[in-house]
Amino acid sequence: MWLIVLLAVVGLGLWALQTFASNESVGDSRWPVIPRPVLTEREQVLYQRLVAAFPDQVVLAQVALSQIVAVPMEYPQRQALQNKFFRLVADFVVCRHDFSVIMVVELDDSTHLRADRQDADARKAKAVEDAGLRLMRIGTGTLPTIQALRSQLRVDDPNVVPVIADPTVSPKPSDSERVAVLRPTVSVILVVVLFAGGWVAYSRLIAMPVPAMTRPRLVTAPTTGTSAIPTAAPIASVSAVAQADLPRRQAQRALQAQVTADAEATRKSLAWAVYYKAPKSCDDPPTWAAQVECGNGYIRAKRAFEKEWAERNPGP
User: Fold this and answer.
1) Which single residue of 13, 28, 254, 308 could bond 194 by disulfide (Cβ 3.0 to 4.6 Å)?
2) Which of helix, strand or coil describes residue 160?
3) 73: which DSSP letter?
């Protein structure tokens, strides 16, 4: 039994070491990555027109929706609602100089005809509009002119609800940031705990104390005119050594017996699982009498199995 525990602990320790190494090591080889522009050519044209249409405002591109829309902390299903728009990105955001949002601009292309993009667009529009923000969607046709963009929204429109962050509340890290910070620490703790458990299991299984044999003590015979000849004291008898080693051998035999018993119990459990299959009618017996009959059938099958097992596996 202890051998199985030791192997499991060592396996978990190797897995934790591999996970920790993969998280901490970047690698010396060059990654196969190349730079790419932030905006496509069509998006660049629209961005320039938005800047020209709103020269006194701040125009941002490719803004995560979670930066402009938030769910109150006291909302009971806050995380579930945030997950609906967590990975969505607004194409363009027009802001005041205090970075309160005036308008969100979405530029569609042919990919927005796909079912998955239509679902994402619907969730994006729902989040923006329910937050009280203005959403302007531009289709796949000709881009609007600067004058057309400017006429879509007045900056001082009273119906626009500004989004202003509370300066007294410090921003909290996202779940992914907390996981990235805690992962190395958790990996180190896991490795320490696993190796400590492995060492305890190893010490209990193998590192048992072996009694030390008494070294012979040299004595000197009295001198009688000739040089003294050292003689050794009698060595401990073989029976005494065997008697001192008896606890270790008894522990080893007990451990071997336990391992054999566990293996036999496992083999018997597997044989019973193959031997007995409950009838489908016993999955949900409709009456009490049916439940009693299912129980009696189980007992009869168990007795027959025990008898057959004893015949095929006689004891020592």
Assistant:
1) 13
2) coil
3) T
